[in-house]
Amino acid sequence: QVQLVESGGGSVQAGGSLRLSCAIFGYFDSTLSMGWFRQAPGKEREAVATIRNGGQTRYADSVKGRFTLSQNTAKNTLYLQMNSLNPEDTAMYYCAADFRSGTRWFTAEFAYWGQGTQVTVSS
Predict the structure, then answer these.
(1) SS3 (DSSP) at 28
(2) CB of 90 within 8 A of CB of 40?
(3) DSSP string of 71-107?
(4) Of 102, 98, 101, nearest to 111 (Cα)?
(5) Contact 114/101 with Cβ under 8 angstroms?
(6) 108: helix, coil or strand?
(7) Which of 6, 11, 59, 116 is surrounded by the most beta carbons within 10 Å?
């Protein structure tokens, strides 16, 4: 049973920083791709940043230059460093994982999801 456990959300003022963590339990394979998504009230879930098994990263235009993905050495924990946060970043943030090969960006391309962690940015 694959489980994703997120942590690190919270409340911060505009311009501040947060670091999200996502640990994967239950299964690991070298084909693992992971990503962070977010969903604001009344909006669809959208990709924030993803990383493929080869290490290639992709970021949404809205977070480029502000958010950075990284992994631990074992590649079973994903981090999202979020800097220069603004109120538009307020959302529930979800970690996702998939073990199929190929590009992963859209929600339908990830099979496993965490419970989410809330990020609130006040102006």
Answers:
(1) coil
(2) yes
(3) E-TTS-EEEEEE-S--GGG-EEEEEEEE-SSS---SG
(4) 98
(5) no
(6) helix
(7) 6
- Summarize pLDDT for 57-112 with one digit per residue, the tens: 999 999 999 999 999 888 889 999 999 999 999 999 999 999 998 889 999 999 99
What is residue 113's three-state secondary structure? strand
pLDDT of 54 reads: 80
DSSP state string for 41-80: TTS--EEEEEE-TTS-EEE-TTTTTTEEEEE-TTS-EEEE
Q: Do the Cβ atoms of 94 and 6 come closer than 8 Å?
A: yes
Q: How far is CA 76 from CA 4, 5, 44, 64, 73, in A?
A: 10, 11, 27, 23, 8
pLDDT at 31: 86
Pick from 90, 79, 103: nearest CA to 38:
90
Q: Which pLDDT value is given to residue 5?
A: 95
Average pLDDT of the chain, as a whole number: 95
